[in-house]
Design a protein that fits this description.
alpha+beta; eight-stranded antiparallel β-sheet; 3 domains; Multidrug-efflux Transporter 1 Regulator Bmrr, Chain A; three-stranded antiparallel β-sheet
Length: about 270
């Protein structure tokens, strides 16, 4: 073995990587020893592998998973920088969301959402027929899905010779976030007779009561919209005579000049 090669211990010291890290990176195939002695099992690294090792160490300090690092280290420097800046932007957005969630917990604890809670009201909603489309998606895909689903549904109603419907409701049957997909349903009330088609389905919505809150312009976007949901849920938690009986939904257009209302079906 040439003197220019370094034993794993010396290579790890030079690159500030622990023996455990070197073994892991070798097993994952992202930093394989240049030579392994078949008799002793000693692992040797070439000096030119140091730059790759230090890059891997820096990427690990960012908290990136091994699989993502394996992709990044094969890119040229410019492409890798573009990917990392995009990742950093997403991390910043996630931090904003997490900050908002912490603030939401604080608001529930100290009553800071009282001003919004005071604007919550109840109303009766008549029975209707809905034509809808469902999708599993993250928050980033929500706006695009809402726009395309509404356009497709209203086009289909017109093609069937039916008025293109009334208000649009967006039902959140599961939690939707940046990190996880949830089931979202876009629905439009209509009168007349149509048949389900492709990914469009028909369902009947019974007469019900709902608690609702018109959304102020400052709360229309994510994650600020969470304040509206938190306010309604705080209101529900404080009432022993009212119970939520289904998924929350947004109603477009909203009441009192709002772009949309947030509502929960109640007993």
């Amino acid at each position: 073995m040439s003197d220019s090669y370094l034993l794993a211990g010396r290579f790890g010291a030079a690159t500030r990587l622990s023996p455990k890290a070197l073994r892991l990176y070798a097993e994952q195939g992202i930093l394989v020893p240049a030579y392994t002695d078949p008799a002793t099992g000693y692992r040797y690294y070439a000096p030119e592998q140091a730059a790759r090792a230090r890059l891997i160490a820096r990427l690990r300090r960012l908290g990136l998973p091994i699989a993502r690092i394996a992709q990044l280290i094969e890119l040229d420097a410019d492409s890798r920088l573009v990917e990392l800046r995009s990742w950093l932007e997403a991390q910043g957005e996630r931090l904003v969301e997490q900050t908002e969630l912490v603030d939401a917990i604080a608001r529930q604890s100290d009553g800071r959402g009282a001003g919004m809670v005071s604007k919550i009201a109840m109303r009766e909603v008549g029975a209707c027929k809905l034509i809808s489309c469902e999708r599993q998606l993250t928050i980033e895909a929500l706006d695009g899905f809402m726009a395309s689903a509404e356009a497709n549904i209203r086009r289909y109603l017109r093609d069937c010779g039916v008025a293109d419907g009334g208000a649009m409701t967006v039902h959140f049957h599961e939690t939707v976030s940046r990190d996880s997909e949830g089931l979202v349903e876009v629905a439009i009330a209509y009168e007349g007779s149509v048949e389900p088609a492709e990914d469009l389905r028909i369902r009947f919505q019974a007469k019900r009561r709902e608690v609702f809150l018109p959304v102020a312009p400052t709360c229309e976007n994510f994650p600020q919209i969470l304040r509206v949901y938190d306010a309604i849920e705080s209101w529900l938690d404080a009432r022993s005579d009212v119970h939520c009986i289904g998924s929350p939904y947004e109603i477009y257009p909203g009441s009192q000049g709002a772009a949309f209302d947030v509502a929960y079906p109640i007993t």
